[in-house]
Amino acid sequence: MIPEETITRVRDSVDLVELVRESVPGLKKTGRNFQARCPFHQERTPSFNVNPEMGLFKCFGCGVGGDAFKFVMLMEGLNYPESIRKLATRVGITIEEAQSPAVSAEAHERQTLYGLLEDAARFYHRHLLESSDAAEARAYLEKRGLSKESIVRFCMGFAPASGQALREAASRKGWNLDVLEKAGLLRRKEGSGRVFDHFWNRIIFPIWDTQGRIVAFGGRAMGDALPKYINSPETPVYSKSRHLYGLFQGMPTLRKMRHIVILEGYMDVVVCHQFGFEWTAATLGTALTEEHVRLLRRYSDKVTLLFDPDAAGAAASLRGGELLMADGFTVGVVTLPDDVDPDELLVKEGKASLEKYLETPVPFMDYYLDQMRKKYPGTAPESKLAIAKEMLPLIKKMRDPLLQDEHLGRLAQALRVEKPVLAAQMKKIKTESAFAKATVDKSGNNEVAGKPAEALAKAGVKPASALLSVEEEMLLLSLLHPSNVVAELLDALEWTDVRCRQIWALVSPDVAQGTVQVSSVMGALPEDVQEWLTPLTMQQRYYANPQATLEELVTGWNRQQESAVLKEMKAEIDSMIDGTIPMDQTKVQAYNDLSRRLKGSPIIGRRPGR
Ligand code: UTP
Ligand code: MN
Known about the structure:
- It is built from 27 helices and 18 strands.
- It folds into five domains: 4-91, Alpha-Beta Complex (DNA Primase, Chain A), CATH 3.90.580.10; 105-237, DNA primase DNAg catalytic core, N-terminal domain; 239-314 and 335-357, 3-Layer(aba) Sandwich (Dna Topoisomerase Vi A Subunit, Chain: A, domain 2); 376-436, no CATH class; 443-610, no CATH class.
- 52% of the residues lie in helices and 11% in strands.
- By secondary structure, the protein is of the alpha+beta class.
């Protein structure tokens, strides 16, 4: 385990420009940044940027970016610890794999778990390859069509049948029981308190995160024993809604293709990769989540869903597809014939068979409509209405107005209804009541506190993009011009963008001190936030009077927040006035109060005659 402090020292000692230039000789200074043609994709004009102050690089063409470690990882195919060791050697820092008091307890714990999980994976892997009691497992994998290369590439393993072997091996290496239990590798029997290996007599599939760290395992029974798979529990380093199996191995290919095929299971992924379909990953039996969608955003624009042709598979396709469509992905669905998994198809019929299916995915909205037609058959008005009611919320959620209009038009055509009628219907769909976001206190002051942004994001509500960019701008300004005044102004702010809020929590003390090293907080941020922050810091901005600009931004931000809420309230009040929903005097009062404060006078009075 490498202490966080050492990692920071290494990062700060590396001259990123010099490092990059060794692989990218064409790197030229432009303004504060350096630019070149991107080494990670083919391009004619340079969109690859290096910002030496921040210690970060970013390609605006293909999207890759990160710090010096990330650069070495991508360039040389190393994992994270390897990249640290490599750069440490370069700058002459010795890595004592000891503990550092500076490391936060949590980060420290995670590092420990990564180390243990890596050890465990190696233990299982060696066992599968070498041990005589893994003969059945090896035969099973051979029967399933897995090559030796795949077994090595995915570091597959075997957990011995005794139920004690991992613990004993780990103890010999000095790992204690608590850590083993935290990592999800041990189970304690209730009552007796005796401990057993979580995985025994199973074939082991390690699960990687996108930085190449092993975070969990899946274990398959050989033959028909039940349950078929046992998985690691949720641990400080693993949550199944956040990882996709095979994504790490597929990353180099995905980066070029920006198209991914989502499968259901471990075996599907390993066999698909074996046959050259490296742009595949699996959700491992769970539905695709918002977190998966965010993860996919970084590596793809186009997603093909390839789930089992059963009812559960269809339901999973619909839910996952909706999330992806709303986010602007191009989504297609491929359905294989009954009872055939992708891995079986490949092993039985070869590469061309799956290729053929993947060539003709059904566009998601057509697939969705098909499913709905089965659910609500016939052309009676009731069926049409039912279908419209199921599909309009998704169209409403689409963030791109052009796509939204296009899909609305297509649905109107398919259902043979007038587009304006459908548009009116869509308008009526409620997203999130604005009143939930504004709370009124007794003095009549409105306070735009509202729900945390995570909750809003979950509910599919995104803060207006104008707000987002104001927050980005404020954050960027604080990083470029850190000062006590700037920190005070921003500390008073309720960030609506979760990413800004997370970053601010980390940099605020440094901003107040007047010195910020963005690259040193990177490690503490979730990956998706890192990838979002990097290009932001590459923005070329100059502020003649940073403090005055920030004050303006903060004022504008407050106003925008309140206006957005007011606008949503107004829509609801309008519905009250035209009688669509019952009149609610408390809400009218809340609206009037806010409106008076923003504009000077109330707009809506009591309804005449009431
Ligand atoms: P499937 O039942 O379709 O299994 O579950 P599979 O992937 O085809 O497995 P093989 O080919 O028979 O080996 C799909 C995925 O759901 C999860 C696993 O991730 C599996 O790959 N699953 C399934 C479990 O977690 N536990 C189970 O008991 C079954
Ligand atoms: Mn299968």
